[in-house]
């Protein structure tokens, strides 16, 4: 059974060795605003909206070792090409550098990392009417981005940070094994596979989106999980539209014999690679 097609992503929670450094980075370079800071937890969002990135401060947290499972990148989806241009200018003005730029046919994307090595994608979608399909799969590729065309749409006027319509568009994870990850995210949680064409990667979504989840073994098949409490991904949220939808997923988790724990009115469960997912309903 599929996950409810009205499900969305909530926030990505990161363990930060230097919470002040990362808070400043996500404010100045990315353009998010601090919505709340208390008890070692910072919640950041776009112009007083819902949290998109959450930081847990732990100076003693070990650094995530290379070639482990965890976060490949979190992807912030801006509402237009003009807002992507503004986001690019904001990063440059903050003295930060990008690590890549790609046209994925369905989207235009820029890539960078925060000061503790967490990957970030800033992107805008093309209209769904412009997407192409190869059988049942959405056609995606990685080709050169026409950066000049993007920056030609840079708006005039002051930069007031990320547009309020900005959301967490997708989360891309390093996993140890694609078939095991697919069995969890498709077979248990109920996401639909949208793209199988990338070597060592798989993409899944709900509601016909190109992808809410990216999974890859680019850190090596069989990569180990990082040490408990390491810097980087603590969890990411999947937000279901109501209690019935959450109960359906909970039932599949229980039937699969997976351990879960209560969290934020929902439950937290780890995928086979140790990446933690928090499933909850939308907050009123």
3D structure, described in words:
The chain is of the alpha+beta class and 284 residues long. It has one domain: 2,3-Dihydroxybiphenyl 1,2-Dioxygenase, domain 1 (Roll). Helix content is 18%, strand content 37%. The protein has 5 helices and 19 strands. The protein has helices at 19-28, 81-93, 147-151, 178-188, 243-255; strands spanning 8-16, 33-38, 41-45, 51-57, 70-78, 100-103, 107-113, 119-125, 133-134, 137-138, 143-144, 167-174, 192-195, 201-205, 213-216, 232-240, 260-263, 266-270, 276-281. The strands form 3 sheets. It has a 9-stranded mixed beta sheet with strand order 11-6-7-8-5-12-15-14-13. Strands 2-3-4-1-16-19-18-17 form an 8-stranded mixed beta sheet. Strand 3 and strand 4 form a beta hairpin. The longest helix has 13 residues, at 81-93. It is globular. The mean pLDDT is 97.
Question: Could you give a short description of this structure?
Answer:
The protein has 284 residues and is of the alpha+beta class.
Shape: globular
Number of strands: 19
Average pLDDT over all residues: 97
CATH architecture: Roll
Strand content: 35-45%
Instruction: Report, as a whole number of angstroms, the end-to-end distance.
Output: 27 Å
Walk across the major sheet and give the strand order.
Answer: 11-6-7-8-5-12-15-14-13
Q: What sequence of helices (H) and strands (E) makes up the elements?
A: EHEEEEHEEEEEEHEHEEEEHEEE
> In DSSP terms, counting alpha (H) and pi (I) runs of 4 or more, how many helices?
5
Which percent range fits the helix content?
Answer: 10-25%
Number of domains as seen in the coordinates: 1
Helices and strands: which structural class?
alpha+beta
CATH class: Alpha Beta
Low-confidence stretches: none
CATH topology: 2,3-Dihydroxybiphenyl 1,2-Dioxygenase, domain 1
CATH superfamily: 2,3-Dihydroxybiphenyl 1,2-Dioxygenase, domain 1
Can you summarize the main beta sheet? 9 strands, mixed
What Rg is obtained from the alpha carbons, in whole angstroms? 18 Å
């Amino acid at each position: 059974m599929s996950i409810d097609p009205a499900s969305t992503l909530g926030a990505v929670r990161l363990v930060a060795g230097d919470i002040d450094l990362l808070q400043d980075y996500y404010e100045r370079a990315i353009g998010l605003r601090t919505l709340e800071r208390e008890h070692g937890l910072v919640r950041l969002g776009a112009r007083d909206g819902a949290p998109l990135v959450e930081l847990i401060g732990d100076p003693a947290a070990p650094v995530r070792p290379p070639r482990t499972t965890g976060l490949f990148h979190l992807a912030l989806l801006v509402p237009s090409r003009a807002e992507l241009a503004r986001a690019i200018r904001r990063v440059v003005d903050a003295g930060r550098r990008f690590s890549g730029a790609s046209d994925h046919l369905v989207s235009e994307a820029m890539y960078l990392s925060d000061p503790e090595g967490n990957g970030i994608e800033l992107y805008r979608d093309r209209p769904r009417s412009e997407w192409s399909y190869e059988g049942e799969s959405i056609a995606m590729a990685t080709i050169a981005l026409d950066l000049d065309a993007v920056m030609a749409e840079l708006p005039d006027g002051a930069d007031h940070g990320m547009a309020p319509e900005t959301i967490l568009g997708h989360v891309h994870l390093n996993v140890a094994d694609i078939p095991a990850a697919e069995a969890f995210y498709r077979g248990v949680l109920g996401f639909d596979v949208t793209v199988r064409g990338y070597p060592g990667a798989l993409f899944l979504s709900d509601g016909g989106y190109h992808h809410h989840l990216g999974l890859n073994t680019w850190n090596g098949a069989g990569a180990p999980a990082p040490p408990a409490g390491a810097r980087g991904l603590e969890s990411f949220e999947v937000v279901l539209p109501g209690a019935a939808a959450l109960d359906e997923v909970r039932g599949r988790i229980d039937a699969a014999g997976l351990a879960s724990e209560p969290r934020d009115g929902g439950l937290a469960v780890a995928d086979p690679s140790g990446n933690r997912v928090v499933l909850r309903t939308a907050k009123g």
